[in-house]
Amino acid sequence: MRLGMSEIIKAYQILFPFRQGLSDITTMDQLEDCIRIELLDELTHPRVRKRPDQKLQIAYERIDKSDFNKTLKVSLKNSYEKVFQSVTRL
User: Which helix or strand (DSSP H or E) is residue 21 part of?
Assistant: First the structure.
């Protein structure tokens, strides 16, 4: 079963309810940009930033602990993995 874009976006908004600008996300490009910012830890002071692989692991753990169904968890992880691959190629 393949999930729609709006279901994945809504799940991300539920998973990270206090992130700034979440209510404005309406496209997968916008979601991927939020994930990129998260993986690069851009909102954290440079001296305490974590590496993208560490941030990915933290996100995976949060997704795994959520009450989402397996399909939604896999879709969210796939979104993270896609962005992770793009930021680690830089």
Answer: none
pLDDT score for 1: 57
Give the count of domains, the chain: 1
* Phi/psi-derived region of residue 41, left when phi > 0, alpha when psi is between -120 and 50, beta in every other case: left
- 32-45 pLDDT, tens per residue? 999 999 999 999 99
Distance CA 43, CA 15 (A): 18
Given this model, what pLDDT does residue 22 score? 82
What domain range is 9 assigned to?
5-88
